[in-house]
Amino acid sequence: MKKIIAITIGALCLAGVAFASGKKESPTPTHPEALRVAAITGTSGIGMAYLFSNVPDLGDGTAVSFESVGAADALVPKLLSGEIDITVLPPNLAAKLYNVNPNSVVMGAVVGNGMISLVTRDSGVSTVADLRGKTVSVAGQGATPEYALRALLAKTGINAGDTTLDFSIPNPEIAAALVAGKIEYALVPEPFATIAVLNGGGAAPIRRAFAVKDEWKKAGFGEDFPMTVCVIRKEYAEAYPDTVRSFLDSYRASIEWTVAHPAEAGAYVESAGLGLKSPIVAKAIPSANFVYVPATDARSDMESLLKVYLQFAPEAIGGKLPDSGFYFR
Q: For residue 294, what are the domain limits?
């Protein structure tokens, strides 16, 4: 996360120079020649994979292209420099980009809600309250999994230190460590929860003890919380709002198709180069909580999550809630 923040701040400084140049441009055409879209490899790109192979016709002659990028720290500079126009990001990073420079991005939609589960062989754990005194390996230090769990522990009355959060195991290795018996409790997103359950048979099989989104709702934080948001370069969104809306309509349709056709979607994900195998994707989609919620409709749930960041790590969202200009209409 520190690496991402450093790259982000540097890129935003360059962007600020460009915005401050005062150089007049020729009139913007009604329709863009191109729309460049990127997905981060991994679960967040699953809902977009269908479009990689079925490139949408936006009805205005815009040439749409797709690419996969290994991680957010490689993607953010490409977004801010104008190499890509639309992508998906964690909600806290999207909010931070906007708060550091309101001319950088706007949010188009929430495209993935809470998909984090506590997985374990311990049949005695079924709620957050049961984690008192336990050591939990957490995928996502400095990101939503960590802070969602911290908020739930505090709400349950478990003081800091009563439950130990362990970040020593790299995210992709946590499921294997649980299967091998090296750890007892793991808080992981999809598809890692599915991988653990599929591979963790035996007399005491690995199970999903609870989904964090269910505990989130029980605690009164909201119906659900965002995990992935679609963002658009603000300059592009302001110049070509109709093109952006047409793409978002196609993205919504892609997500709905993916949820309805997990087996077929798995093949598209693998062919898109998102780093996931088709059979695992097909098994994970029913638990992955892919949604499409337009930005303005998602504001309440976004702010509920971002307030948790304000409590535990305000710097991770730029120190404040984004204002209304963050939410694309």
A: 2-113+226-326
